[in-house]
Amino acid sequence: RRPKNFPPGPPVWPILGNILDLSLENPLKDFERLKKTYGNVYRVILADYGSSWKEQRRFALMNLRNFGMGKDSMEERIHGEIQYTVDTLEKSIGKSFSPQNMFHNAASNIICQVLFGKRFEYQDETMKTLVQCFTENAKIANGPWAMVIRSFTFQLTMYILDLHFAGTDTTSNTLLTGFLYLMNYPQVQERCQQEIDMVLEGKDQASSEDRNNMPYVQAVIHEFQRVANTVPLSVFHCTTKDTELNGYSIPKGTLIIPNLTSVLNEEGQWKFPNEFNPENFLNDQGEFVKPEAFMPFSAGPRMCLGEGLARMELFLFTVTLLRKFKFIWPEDAGEPDFTPVYGVTLTPKPYRMKVQLRVSQKIPNL
Ligand code: HEM
């Protein structure tokens, strides 16, 4: 009973379909019926705008805050995790290797520490399965059947999956994209390293506050996010009342698909919309500026609630790794392919990297 366009996925989907007597030909109809039967969707990302979503969002923010989002303790946790990434990279010096799992595991562990109070070793089987499931699901989750699966009320389980997914795939794919570009734009990498060495001279490690003294690094990280375009269609929304926008009438209940890709690449909004160029975020004086069109976290009341955590992770990972290592595109890797693989999140095509320890007298304890 697998319909023609059924996305590849675990056999549990057709089995569930049979149990629930779904038509399997019209997921939207099934979705509406299931919603009526099983009530509201008690999650964060996909919850309808209303009291349940408000409660879940408050709960999520409270948890993240209690566990230190935006505070020193979260910074320490991130640095703790970076140390494992550094160890992994040190073991790979001189070899060409794939960084995919390394960044996914690192981002996953940071959110796991908030959700489960523990991290997992990179070789841990649970961790490997979890990361693999999320990576695969990000590719199939905008298929019609995903809507049906989402309509079940598993409460807390779905909430944890939401936060884990939202906090892992997004951050790791941004880092993967960033390092892909850094290897292929060595002059950008070197300029970041000069700024990092200068600002962190004599310090053991970077802190979020150092962002203010690193306009170039800030510009580069924002440019990672712009070109990575990690969540190209954001999350689908729906008008909660009849709406007028730029002369168009949009009736209540219309599906709205935000197109973040178009904003992040729009002619007229960026100095260099179609190339990787940190100048997009620098003014004539070399100061960091953030154009209004920079909205990888979307906008409005539903905008990403993990923005603060994500920005902290991107900064601390980039700075710490660039301070210690030089990242090199392997000689036998051929021409880089920057075309992403489509899904709910965009992923760079799998690639390999090489690292060298940087010879710098200015790194005290690393
Ligand atoms: C570079 C990293 C990230 C990017 C680009 C990103 C992007 C987004 C986008 C575009 C949305 C949809 C907003 C909308 O519906 O209009 C979103 C929602 C969300 N994000 Fe993120 N995100 C990132 C990291 C994180 C992290 C680390 C967390 C973990 C705490 C997180 C948690 C969430 C949650 C819970 C929502 C749903 C908010 C709601 O519906 O009220 N995100 N994110």
Automatic annotation (TrEMBL):
Subcellular location: Endoplasmic reticulum membrane; Microsome membrane
Protein name (record): Cytochrome P450, family 2, subfamily X, polypeptide 9
Cofactors that this protein relies on: heme
A Pfam family assignment: p450
GO molecular function, one term: heme binding
Residues involved in heme binding: 304
Keyword Oxidoreductase: yes
Source organism superkingdom: Eukaryota
GO cellular component, one term: endoplasmic reticulum membrane
Organism, as annotated: Gasterosteus aculeatus aculeatus (three-spined stickleback)
PANTHER family assigned to the protein according to its UniProt record, in alphabetical order: CYTOCHROME P450 2F2-RELATED, CYTOCHROME P450 508A4-RELATED
One BP annotation, GO: xenobiotic metabolic process
Keywords: Endoplasmic reticulum, Heme, Iron, Membrane, Metal-binding, Microsome, Monooxygenase, Oxidoreductase, Signal
InterPro entries, A to Z: Cyt_P450, Cyt_P450_CS, Cyt_P450_E_grp-I, Cyt_P450_sf, Cytochrome_P450_fam2
Family statement: Belongs to the cytochrome P450 family.
Major location (coarse): endoplasmic reticulum
Membrane topology per record: Peripheral membrane protein
